[in-house]
Amino acid sequence: MGLLPGFSSVVLAMALALLNAASVHGGKVLVFPVDGSHWINMNLLIEGLHTRGHEVTVVRTSTSWYIKEQSPHYHSITIPLSEAMNLEKQDFFVQFLAKMLVLQKEGASVMAFVSFYRQMLTTLSNIHHQACQVAEKMFKDKALMQSLRDAQYDVVLMDPGLPFGVLFAHELKLPTVFNVRWITSGEGHFVVAPSPVSYVPTSGSAVTDKMTFLQRVRNMFHFLLNIAIDNLVVSPHYNRLVEKYLEPGTNFYQLLQGADIWLMRVDFVFEFPRPTMPNIVYVGGFQCKPSKPLPADLEDFVQSSGEHGVILMSLGSLVKGLPVEITNQIAAAFAQLPQKVIWRLPGEPPSTLGNNTMLVKWMPQNDLLGHPKVKAFVAHGGTNGIYEAIYHMVPIVGIPLLFDQFENILRLEVRGAAKGVDVTKLTSQNFVETLQEVLHNPSYRDNMKRMSDLHRDKPMHPLDTALFWTEFVMRNKGAAHLRTESYKLPWYSYHSLDVMCLLLAVLSLLAALVVLSVYFLCFKLCRRKDKLE
Amino acid sequence: MGLLPGFSSVVLAMALALLNAASVHGGKVLVFPVDGSHWINMNLLIEGLHTRGHEVTVVRTSTSWYIKEQSPHYHSITIPLSEAMNLEKQDFFVQFLAKMLVLQKEGASVMAFVSFYRQMLTTLSNIHHQACQVAEKMFKDKALMQSLRDAQYDVVLMDPGLPFGVLFAHELKLPTVFNVRWITSGEGHFVVAPSPVSYVPTSGSAVTDKMTFLQRVRNMFHFLLNIAIDNLVVSPHYNRLVEKYLEPGTNFYQLLQGADIWLMRVDFVFEFPRPTMPNIVYVGGFQCKPSKPLPADLEDFVQSSGEHGVILMSLGSLVKGLPVEITNQIAAAFAQLPQKVIWRLPGEPPSTLGNNTMLVKWMPQNDLLGHPKVKAFVAHGGTNGIYEAIYHMVPIVGIPLLFDQFENILRLEVRGAAKGVDVTKLTSQNFVETLQEVLHNPSYRDNMKRMSDLHRDKPMHPLDTALFWTEFVMRNKGAAHLRTESYKLPWYSYHSLDVMCLLLAVLSLLAALVVLSVYFLCFKLCRRKDKLE
Predict the structure, then answer these.
(1) Which of B235, B353, B415, B516 has the fewest CB atoms nearer than 10 Å to its CB?
(2) DSSP assignment string, A296-308
(3) Tens digits of per-residue pLDDT, B332-380?
(4) Residue A189's closest chain B neighbor by CA?
(5) Which of A411, A453, A475 should we substitute to test contact with B (largest number of B Cβ atoms within 10 Å)?
(6) CA A521 from centre of chain
(7) Per-residue 3-state assignment (H helix, E strand, C coil) for A25-67
């Protein structure tokens, strides 16, 4: 048998999308994005919406790093912010990473760890505090609020990583579409879909969907920890805003849960299978697209690798630098290999750099990953890069550094498509061994190919799916029929604890009656027996 | 703004499907269908698979009523069955209905009710016993089993209403696609998706997704009842087979839960929103299609209705007749109306029949429902008819008689698209009033139109979705990445009860330590105080 391969169906779906695009006219979209790598995803959606004839307005701050004021694809509303926590400029993540490495490497004291963790929570709180400051400035600006009302948008599109947009969606009585993977302090699913802790890994727990008893205990611990962080560190900022600016009885968490459509940046080729809801639409890998030809000099370098091929390395946009001792180890490892290496490294060149390694400040990552000479991808494990690697079938050597990167690499390891390296224990020796295993053991590429085939085998490209459902919400003024309102139940009713108490009470009563009856009967019988005797 | 209306996207998706069809070559599909109205759905899928170049083999019995031995779309394997419970020939459902009506009408004694319920369970048990007899005949037929192995099918497609096909899928090591709404003794979702009883209605409970406390108690009761029926009445038949013919350690319920893709005959326009799983694909209304022109005589009759329009009535294929006193009341009600009526009535004409009513043995239901003159549909509430009515925006007067029909009509009533009539209390007077309300209150048609718009607003027609995912399983030899294996956990682990016990134990220990320490401290202090005094 020769069944339809997935890719041609994607091509056909693209043709359909073009046909679709022709018959759509302009709606109005109000966007609350999150800065940094999140913006890359959101901007793609915005470009798609613009191409399909919609008018997009983006809310940004005067201190945004990635979100430009001027764009051919959107208008912008800029909220002035003088005292911004500009995480990029402060090299926050470089410092954060350096501290974490020291702590992990030296087996630091409990006090040092607590102090570090406290600092992390303070930072988290500050980020949300700043988001709420932006929101408050908007609420206080009567002219702005009136202009938002007058604009008559059709939908609020937002990244709920910083979820203050839900307050404005509520205020403007607009349906909401989330472009989401993380929300407040955890994975987005946990807010809206049943998530049995027995097989759904919680953020931070670093377990798979098949856990031992102790792993399940750990998963439960992280689950409770995330709830605590959400309730004590994150939500209070938003609750204060809701109380101050929205009508009484409004509940921030219910605003989050009430979103019409969740465009979830997840694909089950990568994520473990788990319960979901009818209004969650999976768009993982929606940024993936065929590669374009490389610039001539890069193509020459790639071709010069001959039969050995090329290794790519990039640790993403957030981390500007690794400690020098680590980059030296990595460079020394690369220098031992017959492959050519293209390494995106913003800082100083390592002293141990080999002739086979080209350092670049930026690279056309998607076009390189799609090049047949590229044999492996050394990556930090951000989801954008991972989905591109899956799409182009390039196995990964993972050096996870922050946040969800550890769990992302774990997901690929479980599927035999990547091998992770612990950055705190990285030496040129073990790094070379890992590289050679991923380069020479064909199972890594085979498993990546299998994942890629499954990922591409869809009736529609995920970007078209995302655009379809955003337009669906605009056309139908929401998607109430896909959205449960069970989150409005008290927790004990949601979990049927009240019903079970009643049933237990009734059963106990029945049992008591039976016992009493038997006792009474025995008593009577005994007395009669006594009398007879 | 003028966004793309749903229908044109459906047309485009159909064009895509045609393109797809051209590039698909033959796989081999083994089908285990369920007879009766279920077969109508399955046959549609089979025709689709045949059109796309696949070779389909259907397992039927020599006593099948709907499933013909010869078809241009499939081969068949006929299992001889002499002593079949032929439900149709025995007029089983007519008798069943008559008994039920008497019980409901006359407020029968508890004993009569228990005896009736017992008979119902016996019938259920007999149906599954017969399915297992078919399976056993197959397992014992060595030549047949060898030919099944030799045929090298790509997938088992089955209706798990009678789920013996999973045993053969397991034996033949084939991936499985379910075409499903009901399974063993309940709604299919309950087997594979988390189903909080607090907002997910259980089969038989006749509640919506928004329940009072007492309704939640009732829902829990039906939930427990369904589990009991499944464990005591249904599963034992299959367990016996599994023990006898499959390797030790195989678990029937896990075979059910392990299906690769569930093509769920549900659309959330109709069903209440509820948790789902990544391998559940919604194909509700996949039988819906544009109407064709009517035969000339029927068209003449319909046109003769003038401005008043036409009422359709059909109570489906299962029930051959209602008691005469009820059909007389219905006919008398119709006779009072200015509309024309087309009534599919297999039995004797009622004595009270009016001139405006045409009795037919069969009617082109989809073509009539799509006719602009048709104003209302009097229906029993089977899902096939309901989805056709939704597709063609025809409001419903419901006369639910059996099984899920009560709950189906309830779902439409909640959405304001239908009004139900209690058949045990039906009089010509209240029936006329109900008809007039549905005919003259525009909200019924408006709500049906809203549901229809939402139902049609999909990126692909549900039939194409069903075919895509069936072929997906064939191409990829299953869909393991979409399927959780959490069902293999013991129930106490699945619900994290063991983890919670540990946490409680640790907390208790900590509390005890604190209490003891405080007690010890007090004791010491008091003693010192005593000494000082």
Answers:
(1) B516
(2) HHHHHHHHTTGGG
(3) 999 999 999 999 988 789 999 999 999 999 999 999 999 999 999 999 9
(4) B275
(5) A475
(6) 66
(7) CCCEEEEECCCCHHHHHHHHHHHHHHHCCCEEEEEEECCCCCC
